[in-house]
């Protein structure tokens, strides 16, 4: 946490809440959100997890402050988590929370925590409508450190390009009061980060040798198009990197052997499918060859039969009294021999 504190000024009626609100809050008791709500509602009971809070709520509603998806992922990235690890942890936690919220129905009010800490009016309007709280605390609350620009950019880019995470974020945002839109990646952050790290300008305001801005409209248009293509390419590259990081994370630890076996099984299955296709192709080629041989043999036999019949007819014409016969082995003379007297 940093040292910046949000001061809440006193207006008419502010700073005087009911002595015992009966408010049930799900939060780390040492968190700024818990501190803020306990100042707003003396007597509030704070539980560390939603399951325990639901078990003790009786007929009261439960207040669940949560960080917006992009804020939560950016905070994890700021804490040195890998992108794949950060998004997987957030997805697992969000799935569990959504499952409990489905079971609890309307008995849990989910409020966006950052706006609550900043004292935004619409967040406090929700608390007023749901719990009768109409005043922020008079004292200051230490604000948690916010993630840097690059962490925020990476978080928004990952959520924008991860279908499952985006669906979970949409489900969570649908339950948040007030609702929070999922921000699109702001690629201008890359420009400023590049300039900060290299000391060079990455936009179209690079100066000439004389120190005056170079402005050439056709070149500027071409450079703008190139920058757009580079940004699109960067987005695709980040998507591939994210997928590879997730795959590496899944292959770590106790589940590594399982995924290796699955991969090996897929390889073997692919090889078997290839061999099966090759076998079918060989069978088809062999069958065609056998059919061709059979057709050739039948044609040859028919040709030989026709030749024998033609030869036999010619023999009978030339030697009507003889018994010469045409066979496949040649001509056979079957004329009876007379004994000499």
Automatic annotation (TrEMBL):
Coiled-coil blocks: 234-261
Superkingdom classification of source: Bacteria
Region feature Disordered, mapped onto this chain: 203-223, 315-341
Keywords noted in UniProt: Coiled coil
Biased composition (Polar residues): 213-223, 320-341
Name the UniProt record assigns to this protein: Uncharacterized protein
Species of origin: Aliiruegeria haliotis
